[in-house]
Write a structure and sequence with these properties.
By secondary structure, the protein is an alpha/beta fold. The chain has 16 helices and 13 strands. Helix 12 links the parallel strand 12 and strand 13. The N terminus is likely disordered.
Length: 463
């Protein structure tokens, strides 16, 4: 039986991570939450939880079969002014695994059932407290890896995306109603000027959609991060560059060529943007089967990179081997890193740029950490167009939202074309209605139960 058919149940779950901690929370939600709390919580006063004022916290003991399980604080939040719009009880006890599981088991024995993943948030959605974009934002807030993406997720959780989508939907619905009036009253002739007015309204809606979609690339970057592959010939300091960007010694650094014999992957934040940094083995003629596999993995990493840092030794100057390796990556998005500048530079920067097809060239000394900040700024500029990720506001980052909005844009473009070509208003109306349906899929006005289950199955139990 699906969750939609089980909304009358009272659910319970541990809402904090399992493990030792100062505090842990067991959450109940549903029509019997307070009645169950009455049977398992003894406050220091004479009142039972069902008599507590809403939004109040009370000290007492959790009781099971007449025996004290733990001291606790019990919080009451009556519906509809609660997270789920149902009666909600939260029991905050000591954070031991046994204590929390015993409290949860007691609640279940008294009539609650174990909540499914994301069921508290799903009830908030089904009960109309939040729309689907806000529900998905809850998961994004929990899973945020950077402050920048947390900020984006918080904007969506507050309903900023919902507001923008509702504006577009209202525009489209007004157009739809206007066209339907024309279709239903064909005796009222519509002149070319009136047709142009409707066409202009369609263009306005299209502009709003395109503006939202324009933010999707930056949103994707904050959600998924950017894969940067560091490559070059052996002994040019690739691992030193990795360590400098990570701000800690992750890779072994040695003067011996070929020290790195496999790809090393680490994550880092640069200006609030998440990056996956991949240090590759020096691409050279392999001397054994291990190096042959290492070179193969290096080439594969390069092919899947969003950005390539091509490292060369400034003290030696670009060699024929450098140029040969550069030919393998020059079609990618590349920043050339002139490392070991502290040892002197064999060739003027202008000549280096000519050799490397006028790619961006950054001079650094990974050993002395010189030029690293400039390299970071160059990296961010390539993926974030020079803006500060810390100042980002509303961005599209969810691929489901992006796909639906692209479908909405396509339908609006078809409506615009049909109107511009003078086709029957029925064709225009049908496309506008299709565009509205795509928006409704984003916010959850129109969504199938299977998709709903897939979305909420990604949540942790207890949220």
């Amino acid at each position: 039986m699906g969750q939609i058919e089980r909304l009358d149940d009272t659910i319970a779950a541990i809402s904090t991570p399992l493990g030792r901690g100062g505090i842990g929370i067991v959450r109940l939600s549903g029509k019997d939450a307070l009645a169950i709390a009455d049977q398992m919580f003894a406050g220091k006063g004479k009142k039972k939880p069902s008599e507590f004022r809403t939004f109040s916290v009370h000290y007492g003991e959790v009781i099971r079969d007449g025996e004290v399980i733990d001291e606790a604080l019990l919080t009451v939040m009556r519906g509809p002014r609660s997270y789920t719009r149902e009666d909600v009880v939260e029991i905050s006890s000591h954070g031991g695994i046994v204590s929390l599981k015993t409290i949860l088991k007691t609640a279940v024995q008294l009539g609650a059932r174990l909540a499914e993943p994301g069921e508290f948030t799903k009830r908030a959605f089904l009960n109309g407290r939040i729309d689907l974009t806000q529900a998905e934002a809850v998961l994004d807030v929990i899973q945020s890896k950077t402050e920048a993406f947390l900020r984006v997720s918080t904007h969506q959780l507050k309903g900023d995306l919902s507001i923008e989508l509702e504006k577009i939907r209202e525009q489209l619905m007004n157009i739809y109603v206007e066209i339907e009036a024309i279709v239903n009253f064909p005796e009222d002739d519509i002149d070319a000027a009136a047709r142009e007015v409707i066409l202009e309204k369609i263009r306005g809606a299209r502009g709003g959609i395109e503006k939202l979609l324009a933010s999707s690339e930056q949103g994707r970057v904050l959600r998924e991060g950017i894969k940067i592959v560091i490559c070059g010939k052996p002994n040019v300091g690739k691992s030193s560059v990795l360590n400098a960007l990570l701000k800690h010694p992750r890779a072994i650094v040695s003067a011996v060529a070929g020290t790195t014999r496999d790809t090393i992957e680490e994550t880092a934040q640069i200006n609030g943007i998440p990056f996956q940094l991949v240090d590759t083995a020096g691409i050279l003629e392999p001397r054994d089967l291990i190096e042959e596999e290492a070179v193969k993995r290096s080439r594969l990493s390069i092919m899947t990179a969003d950005l390539v840092l091509f490292v060369t030794d400034a003290s030696q100057g670009p060699t024929g081997e450098d140029q040969k390796l550069f030919d393998l990556v020059k079609e990618r998005d590349v920043v050339v890193v002139l490392n070991k500048c502290d040892l002197g530079e064999r060739m003027p920067l202008s000549e280096v740029r000519e050799i490397f097809a006028n790619k961006d060239v950054m001079k650094v000394s990974a050993l002395l950490k010189e030029g690293i900040e400039g390299l970071e700024k160059a990296i961010v500029a390539r993926v974030w167009h020079g803006e500060d990720a810390a100042n980002c506001g509303l961005l599209l980052s969810n691929m489901r939202h992006i796909n639906c909005l692209e479908g909405c844009l396509k339908a609006v473009q078809e409506a615009e074309k049909a109107s511009r070509d003078g086709l029957s208003w029925e064709f225009v109306s049908e496309e506008i209605r299709a565009a509205v349906n795509e928006l409704d899929r984003i916010t959850g006005r129109s969504i199938d139960s299977d998709l709903l289950e897939r979305i909420f199955s990604q949540f942790c139990i207890g949220k």
